[in-house]
Amino acid sequence: MDxxxxxxxxxxxxxxxVIAVQLMVGALFGGIVIGFFLALASMSKHRLISYPVKAxxxxxxxxxxxxxxxxxxxxxxxxxxxxxxxxxxLLALTINETAYCAEIIRGGIISANRDQRTAxxxxxxxxxxxxxxxxxxxxxxxIMPTLGNESVGLLKSTSLASVVGVSELTMRSQTIVxxxxxxxxxxxxxxxxxxxxxxxxxxxxxxLETRVGLDFRARxxxxxxxxxxxxxxxxxxxxxxxxxxxKLLEVIDLRVAYHGKEVLKGLSLTVRRGxxxxxxxxxxxxxxxxxxxxxxxxxxxxxxxxVGGERMGRGPSGAPLPARALPANRAAARIGIxxxxxxxxxxxTAEENVMSIPVIVQKDAKxxxxxxxxxxxxxxxxxxxxxxxxxxxxxxxxxxVAIARALASNPQLxxxxxxxxxxxxxxxxxxxxxxxxxxxxxxxxxxxxxxxDFARSVADQIVFLQHGVLVEQGPPxxxxxPQTQTFAAYLRQEAAGEIxxxxxxxxxxxxxxxKLIHTER
Length: 521
Ligand SMILES: Nc1ncnc2c1ncn2[C@@H]1O[C@H](COP(=O)(O)OP(=O)(O)OP(=O)(O)O)[C@@H](O)[C@H]1O
Hints:
The protein is an alpha/beta fold. The chain folds into two domains: 2-212, MetI-like fold (Orthogonal Bundle), CATH 1.10.3720; 246-516, Rossmann fold (3-Layer(aba) Sandwich), CATH 3.40.50. The chain contains 19 helices and eleven strands. The protein has helices at residues 2-8, 11-42, 47-62, 65-75, 85-111, 114-122, 127-157, 169-180, 183-212, 214-223, 234-237, 287-294, 326-333, 350-361, 366-379, 395-407, 425-440, 452-458, 485-495, and strands at residues 247-258, 261-272, 276-280, 300-307, 310-311, 335-338, 413-417, 445-448, 461-466, 469-474, 515-516. Strand 10 (469-474), helix 19 and strand 11 form a beta-alpha-beta unit. Helix 5 crosses helix 7 (127-157) and helix 14 packs parallel to helix 16 (395-407). The longest helix has 32 residues, at 11-42. Mean pLDDT is 90; it is low at 508-521. It binds adenosine-5'-triphosphate. One of its GO terms (molecular function) is ATP binding. Keywords: ATP-binding, Cell membrane, Membrane, Nucleotide-binding, Transmembrane, Transmembrane helix, Transport. The chain crosses the membrane at residues 12-43, 55-73, 181-208. Residues 17-205 form the ABC transmembrane type-1 domain. It is a multi-pass membrane protein; Peripheral membrane protein.
């Protein structure tokens, strides 16, 4: 035991351990930084970028790190590059690590919630902002355990550096053994040092995992010191006077196709400022696609969409905007959106969720954005929940945070994509009453829903879609007096609770006759 303890505390071995740790930290750091960019490159739409990166990862993962180490150590001098044994071992381990980290990080990125990413894009986040504020926080939660595992594996792989003459822990224990033949105590002491280092890594991993976890964030949010909140001018809080004749949203002959299949077939619609338009239709009729198109989030193949003076997804000449110009286009249109599944950023409190739009999109100072967020949360009756994380709220409360988030950007138009479909009946009421309040304030709303009674009570204009075609349009009275057989059949089935998804008509079947009744307010 004494001999074991002697070697366990031997400075010569611990100096070797320091070299092993230096190799591990250097390779892990390089692996994570370079791996992040490789992960992005491997997911690129451009094959010229993604394929070589995938091939690089494939080759490095497919060959033993020992082989790579020896190869690099012997190949570099032939190109006149003379590196020390330590530097070439570090380089080889880093290169190998980039492939593994790229795959770990790619896994984290693809695990990020799609709805939250769509929400960020809809509000006008740039790709970089989406990455920093939405994807990376979620990806970190997913990759932390695997990365912790990887760091322990890497620590053990540093022992391979001994083959090129790096005097790290394993090599030093072998050197001692070759002199005194005390295999068992020396190798056990060396193993003990590896276990101590791995334990330190495990504690670090646990600490980091806790910090990116939602429970820790929730606790921290509750105990955080109060942050500065700006005074907002009183005028900003009151609803603006609207000219109800002004056309705010114009959808002109809109066509959208997914993989060659047309799902919106020449749809035209006008929404005036202050108007509430409700979209009805069976599942699959194209309601969500219409809302996504308004935000330039759907593959529009024809037609035009204007919100205020802004052409969505197109430049002034009518040419489609490149992807990098879309965030500014969406931000300029000032459209808020509320999704069926809330799509709140789950690592942010209610207040942070709402203020993310003024901070990230409108570049407001944080105290101003916080004041706007609190005003919006007060408007939807959530003054007591500023510091709650989404998972601490009921579905109805989460949806009201989502409504506050849509309000915080001072939108000229708010889109609701089946805002109550994911809610229990008693929670539906609270969300409906919040939407009604917005309508009473004179906000312009476009709401997709299956709730005919709610549509009747809130709408200025009802729009019925079928197979991507606007079949009937008119005041709420058309619900009691439908003008087309298809709408009448839909209403009958809806009342009987027999509504099913759309069944595509045969390709030869004629389009449903469109009967339009236009309403002026
Ligand atoms: N990303 C997509 N890729 C391929 N097809 C899609 C995509 N999104 C929607 N579609 C198709 O477009 C059609 C219209 O879908 P959409 O979601 O707009 O209908 P909806 O009326 O909103 O339905 P629901 O009431 O169920 O939300 C459907 O046939 C759907 O399968």
